[in-house]
Structures are given as C-alpha cells and as structure tokens.
Protein 1
Amino acid sequence: MKIHHLRLYCRKLLQVRNFYAKVLGLEVQSESDQHCSFKIGYSLLEFRKHKDARPYHFAINIPTNQIDQAKTWLEERTTLLPFEGDPLIDFSAWDAVAMYFYDPDQNIVEFIARQPLNTEVWGNFGPEMLLGISEIGTPTTDMEKTIQSLAPSGIDKFSGSREVFYAAGDHEGLFIIVDQEKKKWFPVDDPIYPMPFEAQLTIKNKDYNIRYDDEVFTGI
C-alpha cells in the first residue's frame, strides 16, 4: 500500500507549519490560514486547522542505511522519545528500527527504517532522505467493525490480532488499527483518541480516496 496524500487535523496550525518547514526543513507545497502541506518523498502531508483536533500517530519511512544519521539529525532539531532509555527502538518482528518525536500538536511522529524494503540512499541525511508516509494510527472501540470496513479493498493483514492491535498493509504503507480502550500510543503511553483523516492511496494497483471516521473506512 502506498500513501500518496494524508490529510490530518491540528489545533496549532502556525506552530505545526513552522516545525515542519523550519525545524525539519520540509518543502511547503501549499498553505493558507486554514491549512498547510509538505512534500515527504512520494507523499504529501497536509494539516487542516480544527479547534477540536486530538493527536495522531503516523510514521515516515527512511533509508535502511541511514538510521544513525537520522538519529543524529533529529537530535539536533528536537527531542526523541525513548523506550526503556533508548531512542532507537528495535522492532525485530518487523525487521525494522524506529525513533519517535512529538510535533507541536503532540502528534507522535515516527521515522522508521524497514530492512525488507532495502532502501539504501547515500549522502548526508536531510529532509530529501524521507521516502514517504508509511503508517497512520487508526483508533477504534470496535476492532471487528473497523477491520471489516477494509475488506472491500482486499488489503492484507500484516501483524497483530483482531482484539487489540492489528496492522493492515505492508512495509510501504500500514493502517495501525488499535483498540483505544485497551492500548495507548507507543512509546510514551499517551491516551489514544479517535480522529478522522483522509488519504489518497494505492492498494494492489488500485487508487482510492478514503476517509476514516466513526470507526469505519469509506471510499473503498
């Protein structure tokens, strides 16, 4: 699954805009007093202002040979969120290494290097090394209802179970479906809140414009 455009909502639009543009150095694609969007590899990340927005979790793929360089680069710009004292977190079951940080709206952002993709890129790490958005957290109180709403797309299970944590997709793009009453966001144990999002994506060579709201996916 490839995520081409992800639209999220935020409360602190100006602070969010400045963080991604000035701190992380992402290229601004469009902006107004109600939205801003940034180029992240093959993806477009968009934020729209909403007074009731709650934090999201999303992940960005980085080259498999740039883990240490990415860590150093991020530590020069923001504070990493460690797990058990270590800012580099090994997901051996996924053959991946990740690091996490907050943006100004308390979204939990993840940089993750997934070894099965074999995406080596040489050169100094910077915003141009970001490959694309690869995960979006999808809270629900009804795991089965949410998972079933994905069925028409034929998207495959990647990891987890249908009770608490279920990842659907592949190394390039995942929906992280979690029971918001039984789980908190890793690695900081922040409460999980349901928030809508929209995305343009490709699943098994078919293009979709989807929306997630009220615990179901529509547009599939």
Note: The longest strand covers residues 2-10.
Protein 2
Amino acid sequence: MKHIILVILFSVLLFSKSTFSKPKPTFEDPRKIVISLYVSNIKTVNQTISSIYNILKEYPPETLKVVVSVYGPGMRVIKKDYDKHTLLRIKSLMEYDVEFIGCKNTMESMKWNEKDFIDDISYVQAGIVEIIERQMDGYIGITPY
C-alpha cells in the first residue's frame, strides 16, 4: 500500500510540472511578459492578478520578467482609493518584481497626478505604446480577460 501511494505521489509531481519550450528560460534569457490592464472592473482585475500569480508560480523567479502596462480605465486600479484588498495584492506582486507602468495620457485626461497613485509605479506617456515597444523588444503580450 505504501508503495502504491509513493508511485501516485511521484506521478502527480512528475506530471504537474510545466515543461518549458526551447529555448528554456534562463537568467540570461528570461521569459518576458507584458500584460495589458485597461479595465477597472474589480472581478476582472482580480482574475488578472490571479493569472499573474499563476505565472509566477510556474517559472523560477530569475527566469521571468513581468510588466503590467496600465492605461485607460485600468488606471483607476492603481489609485490609492481603489479596493484595499486588490491594492494589497498588487503591492504583493510588486514585491515579486512585477513592474506596474502607468499611462500619463490617461492621467492628464482625468486630471490625476502621481500622488493619486500607489508608490513604486513607473510612468510612460502612452501605456498602449509601451505594450507595442515591449513586444518589439521580445516581450510576449498578454491580455488575460
């Protein structure tokens, strides 16, 4: 009986690991992902955050670079007055070196400034252009909703 349980456990561990495509991600050649966040619906945002956590669980941290480009209505998500639980999840992702980049064009049109947003956000003039440029630099573009 003990032997059967060990075989089952080994099988589960063996088949639950992701197999990475070649070339496999390394420190020198990490997987680079840019995620588009342009909605503020709390359910969709939290699903996106969960997707990022799932990505982080599969890749060794030194072989992964994740950037979230936030623009349009999505900019509400990184404002200090957004849902507290969701902001804690975002700050947790930032501790895992997930970079959040905000859109200055959206900020200007909404009359917001950097003090309205959580700390440690990077800013670019156009969030959508950041996605284009990151993809040109080899990032894989993802919109998980």
Note: Residues 19-142 form a domain with the Hypothetical Protein Ychn; Chain: A, fold (CATH 3.40.1260.10).
Protein 3
Amino acid sequence: MDKLGTLIDQLDIEFERDTVVFIGDYIDRGPRSFEVVEYLINFKKRYQNTIFLKGNHEDMLEQYLSGVDRFAFLANGGQQTLDSYLDQDRTPKTFPIPDSHLDFFKSLVLFFETDQYIFVHAGLKKKIPLDLQNTHDLLWIRSEFIHSDYDFGKQVVFGHTPFQEPLVLPNKIGIDTGAVYGKKLTCIKLPEIEFYQV
C-alpha cells in the first residue's frame, strides 16, 4: 500500500486529459489488501477517467467466493487478503468483504484498448481477435505470449510476469517488476515510454 500511494504521488497526472489504467492484482500481494482496494475505490471517485483491469488474483477471489475453487485463492495469498478484511473494525459484523469492495471486483474489465495500445493483465494469444481472446489467457498466459514476436496490431501493455526491469519490445511492454517480492512497483507514461518506480 505504501508503494502504491508513493508512486501515485510521484505522477504528474492531468486528470482532465489523461487516462489512468491499473493492470490488476490488487489483492493477495501483502497484508493490506483491504486498504489497497479502498484506496483505489476512492481514487476512482476523484478521477473518473480511471480503468481497473482484472488480474488473476481477483479471478481467484471470484472463484473462491462462488465456491468453484477455494484452494487456489487460499494457496496464493488469499488468506492474507481475508485476514486484512477480518481485521477491519466494522459494525455490524457481517460478511468480511463490504459491498463497495464486491462491487469494485465485479466492475473490473479484462482489457482496455486505445488507438495505440492494448492493456491487459497477462497477455494475448496470437492470431485471435481481442474480443475473442480466452479469459484464462488474458489473466494467466506467460511464456507463449512473452516469447512471441507476433504483431497484435497495437503494442500490448501487461503485468503478471515479473522482470528485473520493464520489458520493452516492439509488440509489448511488461511493467511488472516484482513489487510483491520486495522489488520495484512500476508505472509507465505513454506514449513517451517514461517509467516511474518506487
């Protein structure tokens, strides 16, 4: 949470003109998932031109809450997320995830497209139109996408797979630099390809 707030404070965002895109995995990445989601909800209230993508960790939460797969979420940081919600002193004591946060999770989108870029959490499969991409690939794909030199028509900006430094290739830009492992949290300003890190 501290890194997120510090990084946002570094940015010179022109909120009347700029669009801010968050790339997913807001939970399961430390002991303060509740605070991260609360921060993002409040950020959106102030700056409407904000897009939140769904990450694979939000997908695992969805599977957990629906009863489809309870193990994957708990095995991948989910218990920390639940603990962060249970630690909140809310009255009355009800289901630990408040409705405003459930609404946030339901509102997440799988991709966002502009004239020049496609933003997605994990990546894309080649030769498949964007609107026909498989949800699992959008949230989970790794090496098949990372090692592909396929021209997706636009540069793809993605997270999910951590790199020591941002990955910049003609067809893709990877901005996950391993914040969950104590490394840097990275943001990119486009079209300048200017990186901000904490």
Note: The first strand starts at residue 20 and ends at 22.
Protein 4
Amino acid sequence: MTFLFKSGSLWLAGLLGSAAYVSGQEAASEPLPLDPIRFAKVTPLGKVPDWSALKAYAGTLSREEFETAWSEIYSPENGLPPPFEITSDALLVPTGDPSEPTFSLSFRAATSEEASPPLPVWRRASDLPALRGRPPLSDLHIALDPGHIGGQWGQMEERFLSFKPGEIIKEGDLSLLTAQILQKRLEALGAVVTLVRDQPQPVTEQRPENFVGVATETLKEYGILTPATSYAGLQGDAKIITVQWQTEKLFYRVSEIHARADKVNRKIKPDMVLCLHFIAEAWGPSDAPQFSHQNHLHVLVNGCYAPVELEQQDVRFEMLQRLFSRIHEEEIPLATSVAEGMARVTGLPAYVYTTPNARKAGTNPYVYARNLLANRLYQCPVVYLEPFVMNHEETYRRLLVGHYVGRTLIGGRLQTSAIEDYVGGVVQGLLSYYQNQRKSS
C-alpha cells in the first residue's frame, strides 16, 4: 500500500537526499560528471555489483534502442541528466570503483548482426508451448507477492486502518487473502502459482534489532549525530530521525524485500510476479481519522529513475540489467492488459500522479513507471497492483466483510466483495494477454 499521507512512509534518504530531484532542476543535455567517489554509494543492505556481468549484453542493443528505452521508460520526465554518458558506440557508466571508474558497454553497430543476450529464466508469452486445447494459462509460472506482512506486524508497518473500536483491517492480511483466492483461480486455468509469502510472517530472518548499527550510521550521514532511541510520544517527521523508526524500516521495507527477491530469483524463478497491494489516502490525525472521498486504481511497472537514485551503484547496475534484458517489452503490455481487466471489473478511475517519482508507461492512463525495490530486484516482469483506497468509506466497509461470492448488504445496498473484484480483474487481464500473445497450436 502507498500511504500518500504519512510522513512516516518516507525513507529518510529520499526525504533529505533527493531534495534537488523533488524540487526540480534545470533540464540539461550533458550527463553528470563521472566522479568515482560520488558514485560509490550503495543503498542500505544493497550489494556492490559485479559490473563485469553486464558484458554479456554487449552488442545486444543499438544506441537508438537504448535511448528509446531510457527516454520513454527508465528516465524521469523532467529532463534531468543521467549519471552516465551515451557515446556513438557505447554506454559509459561510473562504477564507483576507483581502480576501474568507468564501465563501457558497447552498442550494436548498424552494420552488425544482433548479438544474443543471456537467456532469461522467465519466458515471454510468445515463448510458452502451444496450448493444443489445454487450459489457457497452462505452463505459465506466476509468483504472487502479497504486499507487506500483516498479522502482528501490521501496526509497525503502518498498514492498518480502524475507524471504530473492535474493527480493523490490515493490508498485509488482505493482500494474503487476495493471493490465496487468486492462486486457486489461476491454478484452475492451468497456471503454476507460487506464493512468495504464504502466512502473516516475514520472509526475512532479520529483525529490527539487527539494524541498529546501520540505522545509526544512516542518521549520521544526514547530520543527526545523537538520535533518539525510541519514537514513543513523537509524531510526524520527528519519528523519522529516531533509531527505532530507522531499524523498523530497514527490517520490513528493505530486508524483507531483499529476502523476497532472493526467493523469487533463486528459488521460484517465475515467468512473472504479481505484487498485490491496496492503497490509502490522507486521513488526518490517527486519533480522529477521516474517510477519503477518493477511490482509485493504478498499476506500476519498473522505471522513472531519478538521477539521485542512480548515484547509488547497485541501483545503476540493476536498472541497466533490467533495461538490457528488455524486461519492459513484456512488462508494460502485460501490465496494461491487467490494468484494463481491473478497470473493467472494479469500475475504479485511474489515479493521477502529480509527483516526479512516476511517469506514464505507454498510453493506458492506469499504468505508470516507478522505481520500487521489488519491481527493480525481481529479475522478471513485475506487475505491481494498487487498487482500492482502503480509507474510502465504501471500500473500508467492503473490506471489513472480507471475501464472499455474489452480493451482500453493505451501507444500505447490495455490493460485491472488493477482494472478489480484485481477483476477477486480475484474471480477466491475464487471460486477455496470454490468449492474445501465445501460440494456440
């Protein structure tokens, strides 16, 4: 869920370190200087990449193909310069390694035959075996990633809502329930389905107390030398600059996603991942919450990397690995089809981003590109779903009832289950995409 209203949902580095990006800079055509020190940083819990792994993509993309993918998907829309240089025959990228500060990845020359890129583990729809009369999703391996954790962790995650004593909904629990129902529907259509998380427990074995050192160092980097240990009694941005807040974010937002990515990439190895989430809007003070009048839907693919994000070498590497793997060529049309299915079933309007951390991906008004940890680390097409505003009063009442088939009386009228609509929209979108893209005989 994206809590659009909570300062506590902002990562400290994003809040303090990307001010130039958020506020905007003058557009520039020249790339940033290739300063090895400036570009040596790694994200919290990230790994220093093996830049030589990108050599396998040499000669697989032309300069024009690279520039098209960069300008239309992976770059922000505000024209800020990237921290790499595009020459006539190669991409020059700062590595952050003083002994070898620049990595050169050659483009395919106009007169050369296209080099074969490394074979991905995942398969495009067009690569799946012919159906030959079998169920429409046969052979397709889908990983379902229920967003957040839920259960006892819901309050720490700030992914719970309650407008009345005795009633509460937690996004992690709702996303898991949605995944369990969706799994049965997709398996009935022939798909192989694996849940990345199958219980209200974290996938990571780490806990907040494991990150006290990292959290303290992170705060020091931003000039907070004597941070408070606990955020008890604090509100708003004051919570962010405490060791407790930082350790918790490192646990459930960073370590958890890294653990899921490791599971997806090394163990599950699916053809695609569906990240299942809900969303919320501003609700005012926690002790006197207000319902939102807004209710909407959007679907995310990977892209829209801010230059300040690309200053971190693991992010640069992971972005280039996705771009040169051409994952976007499958990801965007797949996400578009799922968005169309969900829009038809739910009837929700499209959410409109007004911040520079997302951009349109294609022509569908529901589909945006955004750089999230999950859709960057999962090494296959990722469709990241954000339907239903949980603190919209009608949606809140529907989610309190849970999942059911048919209609029941809610708020004085017969209504379908929001979870059933969620599942139905995803199924419609996947069926449409794979029936149109794969061989039937």
Note: The CA atoms of residues 399 and 423 lie 14 Å apart.
